[in-house]
Amino acid sequence: MTFFAGTGLVVKLVLLILLYFSVVSWAIIFYKLLQVHRANSESERFLEFFWKTKRFDAINAQVDRFTNSPLTVLFSEGYGELKKLMDKGEQKEEPDVISTELGGIDNISRALRRATTSEITRLEKYTTFLATTGSTAPFIGLFGTVWGIMTAFKGIGETGSASLAVVAPGIAEALIATAIGLVAAIPAVMGYNHFQHKIRVLIGEMDSFSTEFLNIVQRSFAKK
Known about the structure:
By secondary structure, the protein is mostly helical. The chain is built from 7 helices and no strands. It is rod-shaped, with a radius of gyration of 28 Å. It comes from Geomobilimonas luticola. It holds the Pfam family MotA_ExbB.
């Protein structure tokens, strides 16, 4: 606070911007930690439940137990499309058959892809801010430092004294901007890389689940 009070208007503005970036980044980090943890744990539980349960209708009746898992969204979308196709098949007196005429497996596949894209967007929400903070905060802090040093040297020129007692306080006040920039950027970069890795794992699980879901549908319902 002593450093902050002694800085100029521009450096104060820079420090406030960096403080905003830092506070928002930490809020996003804690939010994403909770979101990704829930997605991982509930996806594991849902997969275990999915393979233990033999009927799609029974699984669909219990999806509310796994609301934070992206896999339940994929299942709901795929099962919903499957039900539509089966209802159309029953209207044509061909129950439990997905005809090529109706789009069949392709319709379900498209529904799964749409759900996957939607879930990826949801999981990646706010991570862009972390990337932006990690890439720009050091430069914002450097700008504050350069401006502070310029101001310090201007003061030296006006006073005509270049002693350490005159120079050191101004330089120290200027360097605080770079320090705060790094304090904001480092956690943001670490958080962004961590979440990108976790999200890639979840994307892999979604792709695998989509493939398995389609295989089950083909084996159980599609025409040979």
